Amino acid sequence: MSDLFWLTDEQMARLQPFFPKSHGRPRVDDRRVLSGIIFVNRNGLRWRDAPREYGPAKTLYNRWKRWGDMGVFIAMMDGLSAKGSERKTIMIDATYLKAHRTASSLRVKKGVLGA
Q1: How does pLDDT run across 83-101, given as a tens digit for each residue?
Q2: For a Cys staple, 108 with which of 50, 55, 57, 115, CB 3.0–4.6 Å?
Q3: pTM strictly above 0.70
Q4: Burial 61-93 (b: 16+ CB within 10 A, else e)
Q5: Which letter does DSSP use for residue 3 in this model?
């Protein structure tokens, strides 16, 4: 069994409207590249450490950089969150969040962090 991440057909169908138009040469497989980008980011890997099943690391990085600069990923997230707005919203009550008991007693030494 593989530990690699692959976008499903349903996920790709939902993302397809946000892809920019291809100009000139056709793009390499969008599913492979996007799955690779997600895998690298989710696992905190360097681009060059991406499994070869996702294709060349340079391709993953170039697509991530180019589409990031164009705002494609932000448009995807905004579009997907707007489509899912009919789902029930879950709120987190901050009164349930607790800091470690020693967090309030931390002292900063002189010369550290400008103190």
Answers
A1: 655 555 555 555 555 556 6
A2: 115
A3: no
A4: bebbeebeeeebeeebeeeeeeeeeeeeeeeee
A5: -
